[in-house]
Amino acid sequence: MGVNRSEAGFTLIELLVVVAVLGVVSVLAVPRMGDMVKEYKLRSACLGVVSSLQSLKLRAIKENARTVMIIDPVNDQYTTFVDNNPDNWSLDPPESRSVTVVRDEGLEISSTFASNTFGFNNRGLLATPFAGTITLTKDATRSKTITLNSVGNIRVD
Fold first, then answer.
1. Which residue ranges form the domains of the chain, and what is each CATH number?
2. C-alpha distances in angstroms, 149 versus 58, 111, 131, 152?
3. What is the DSSP letter of 5?
4. Helix (H) or strand (E) holding 50
5. How far is 139 from 143, CA to CA, in rounded Å?
6. CA–CA distance from 97 to each of 2, 16, 22, 62, 70 (Å)?
7. Residue 101, class by beta-carbon neighbours within 10 Å (0-12 exposed, 13-18 middle, 19+ buried)?
8. Rounded CA gap, 70 and 31, in Å?
9. How many angstroms separate the Cα of 91 from the Cα of each of 24, 60, 68, 72, 98?
């Protein structure tokens, strides 16, 4: 009894066609994966800043004090602390601070706030006279903007 052609399996040509199709699909998909990774890193950094802002706002309410964030665009980092001295917006020796570095290569942070300094008052409202934005930029091609308004709302654009 011979083997029926329909039960014989795949021919070499059929296997080569499948391998060629998979090769073409992978060539098209790889560049998109790189873009997805860059977008993920930018989104992740943005969520980290938003989380810090929300914690800072809640801490101001909890401790009934002004909290401050200072953005350092040169070193791509920001510092947060509870400001116990209402006469200044700077870190004084008894005040404890938290420094967060935006760790990803090619990721930059900037803001529209005067002196890159702003904060929340003891009611969770923005303690600076004007609203502003924080911008995270990845490789000068992609960016996310975090907007803070005068009532303390935080929005990602």
1. 11-156 (3.55.40.10)
2. 16, 13, 4, 6
3. G
4. helix 12-63
5. 9
6. 82, 62, 53, 17, 11
7. exposed
8. 37
9. 57, 15, 9, 14, 11
First and final CA of the chain: distance in angstroms? 71
Instruction: For residues 120 and 31, give the distance between their C-alpha atoms in angstroms, rounded to a whole number.
Output: 42
Q: Which residue has the higher pLDDT, 32 or 56?
A: 56
Q: What is the pTM assigned to this prediction?
A: 0.77
Other Cβ atoms less than 10 A from the Cβ of 109: the count is: 23
How do the residues of the chain divide into helix, strand and coil, expressed in percent and rounded to 5? 35, 30, 35
Question: What tens digit of pLDDT does each residue of 84-99 get?
Answer: 887 788 887 877 777 7
Tell me the per-residue pLDDT of 91-142, one tens digit each, with 9 for 90 and over.
Answer: 878 777 777 877 677 889 999 998 899 999 999 999 888 899 999 998 888 8
pLDDT at 133: 95
- Compute the distance between CA of residue 123 and CA of residue 35 in angstroms, rounded to an integer: 41
Locate 155 and state its tokens.
């929005």
Query: Who wins on pLDDT, 109 or 26?
Result: 109
pLDDT at 19 over 90: yes
